[in-house]
Here is the input.
Amino acid sequence: MKKIVIAMTAVLLMVVSSFAFVNPNYVSPVVNVVKEAAPAVVNIEAVGHKQASVDPFFEDFYKRFFGESPWTQDREFKALGTGFIFDKRGYILTNYHVVENADEITVTTLEGKKYKAKYVGGDSDLDIAVLQVNTKDELPVIELGDSDNIQIGEWAIAIGNPLGFKHTVTLGVVSAVHRKIPKPDGNGAYADLIQTDAAINPGNSGGPLLNIHAQVIGINTAIVNPTQGQNLGFAIPINFAKRFAESLINTGKVSKAYLGVYIQNVTESLAKTFGLKVTKGAFVSDIEKGSPADKAGIKPGDVIVKIDNKEIDSADELVYIVKTYPAGQSINVVVNRKGKEITYTVTLAEREEFAKATENYYLGLKVRDLTPEDINELKLPKDMYGVRVEDVKEGSEAQYVNIKKGDIIMEMYVNGKGEKMRSVKDFQKLASKIKKGDYVGFIIYRDGYRASVYFTYMGR
Here is the structure.
């Protein structure tokens, strides 16, 4: 019996030994990617304050039937995410939602060094933000790649800080490109995203999606609802972020591109009614006079089906794709007109050229005129009127009654007398006359609801 055991042990050792020497000198190329890129990936901790409901269940009920709840209180929040250093001057790219409303931002490197970071600029629509750390230390930098030339099936490597675990590496492939998914807050959609099966979890947001050459091809941004699938992550193409990074560094903001079309989805009934020869795309119901689309020759009744070789399936997708270009850039727009495809070169204008905005705060608010893009994005009727809130001053009465960026102010009341707000000019004219002690009210539109807010103006 002892001999049998000894013999079996010897055989087992031989088997184990043989396994141990399979590919003895092999090193996964992923190891080299991680060694090259990981030092430039940082953990981001953002701390700030925001207005939160005293009772979230009651707030949902109140909002459904009456508009925004006035029963809120200031609460501290802490957000965790990821970013990566892309410039020797200490500039870091991440998602806007990671650092939104942050009062203090701390970044931690792979070596454990901590730095206070300055918020340079960002954009909620685009979900990108730039931070900066000021240090004399030599900072590692990740090389930015070319997301226009990635192929389905190529390696995709994600580095981030999921669920609080620092510098976690996951591996997969590029599963698809040009993906569209709804935004988590329900306002609009992301489009033209990179889809990957490299595991992306909460905390990965803002981190790099890398190719096998250790170049960034995307910014990890979103995951699907766990009830709908597993291991499906989405990243913003890095070429899109590169278009705006320099603008954020120089001015702290991005210049929004303006096309100037009123659009809607192509449906079966719409196609039959107007005799369209396509079943998808963005149907142009009207053109704003003097807009880039008008100057290029696009006409009402056209269906926009492609922008720079990116297929357009819906109105939402067109709205988002246009946002991914800076003002002043020329793009190729392909329209289907009565079955014939026509390509136009359109030079996008700056939104501010067509949408007048207030330079100063009035009642704690900066507002601007509505644009066709607003009408498209918010799915508003074409005859919608009002001014859109661009910024709310900290500590103002407007902030206290929970007016938010993106709200549309339709009417303003002062001491019982109201006027419709059809332009910035209307808003400035009435707001500039308000005195301390006046009773001020607004009818605002948000998320499909009209609501009233009011306060006594104390000059804040």
In short: Residues 246 and 378 are 29 Å apart (CA to CA). The longest helix spans residues 2-20.
